[in-house]
Fold:
Amino acid sequence: SAVISQKPSRDICQRGTSLTIQCQVDSQVTMMFWYRQQPGQSLTLIATANQGSEATYESGFVIDKFPISRPNLTFSTLTVSNMSPEDSSIYLCSVAASGTQETQYFGPGTRLLVL
Amino acid sequence: GENVEQHPSTLSVQEGDSAVIKCTYSDSASNYFPWYKQELGKRPQLIIDIRSNVGEKKDQRIAVTLNKTAKHFSLHITETQPEDSAVYFCAVMNYGGSQGNLIFGKGTKLSVKP
Structure:
């Protein structure tokens, strides 16, 4: 499977600021996704990062709060804007295995704490 | 939309015993069902998956069974070992939007006591 890395691995931020998380894959992938995992909770899809077009957001997530870029088939960024303590979570990117959009592999995640 | 329920939320077994985790889903059009294992502080790892044209799939000590009529699928771990201790998530591929999305269960924390 593809090797997925994320930067930063963790961060502590002040409320009102923004943080951009990077996701890098070692091979070209069609589908990339961003998830949020709140402390002790399950995974919730934020959006699908589409290469060459705007991301597709799930219900409850908006572009102004979570802008996403996907400049090529190996890289994506998620920005958490105007942060509040409720944004404290693990943010994970995932990629779909080549040939299928269903089998997904996750990056190591970014642990965000907002004070 | 798709609704995925996972039971139990916690499970404690003795080393060597079997563990079973069950998930139910609501959308009969769903046809892909993966299971992920997440150790503390680590990323979710895909451990096994099944598609709707198959009723059972095995990989060493892990197996998944699917009952499409009843809309439930289960993870079976035999001869459990302490390193099996983790949170396990089931997921269902939902095709309700323009593209398929994984909907996750709430997770089961499995503890294997030596």
